[in-house]
Amino acid sequence: MDIRRLESKDVTAAWQINEQGLPGTGQISPEEMADLFSLSELPIGVFDGDEMLGFVLCLCPRTRYASLNYAWFNQRYQEFLYVDRIAVALEHRGRGIGSLLYGQVIEHGKNLQFPVTAEVNLTPPNPGSIRFHERHRFREVGVFHQGKKSVTMMLRPVE
Predict the structure, then answer these.
(1) What is the DSSP letter of 29?
(2) d(Cα 48, Cα 46) in Å, to the nearest integer?
(3) Which of 1, 27, 52, 154 could bond 13 through an S-S bridge, CB–CB 3.0 to 4.6 Å?
(4) What residues have CB less than 8 Å from 122, skipping those under 6 apart?
(5) Which residue segments constitute the domains of the chain, with CATH numbers given?
(6) Do 158 and 109 touch, CB atoms closer than 8 A?
(7) How distant, in Å, are the alpha carbons of 8, 46, 141 from that of 73?
(8) pLDDT digits (tens, 9 = 90+) for 139-157
(9) Would strands 139-146 and 149-156 be described as parallel, antiparallel, or unpaired?
(10) Are 114 and 80 in contact (CB under 8 A)?
């Protein structure tokens, strides 16, 4: 497995993996995925040859990204590395790919001296993702309600 920075040619594969992670990943169009690539501070994927196994997209504060969850962190923190989405292809889950990606995210956050932030669905519930984030030493810093959806806002401090 290789880790590399995502390029525009990777948009379709990332979008397909993102679709497999719904509703946890949040549905977006291929065009919105391409835009996220351009805004991302850390767009990386895990590959086996040419096959993308999983990816993560992270943003720094104050980009033009219109996500309400991202805005929540912008309103409360000056510096952070925001995990907008992390997704692993269905057939490759349980192989440590998510942890491999998060290792890169955490290292990048340390290099920037930024805490790493993320949100996880409470409604609809995503207990697997909450356990995953807790294993990586994230803690809840708030809950954000948006109509019928609620998320736990999580932060991993700089070490």
Answers:
(1) -
(2) 7
(3) 52
(4) 143, 150, 151, 152
(5) 2-116 (3.40.630.30)
(6) yes
(7) 27, 27, 10
(8) 999 999 988 889 999 999 9
(9) antiparallel
(10) yes
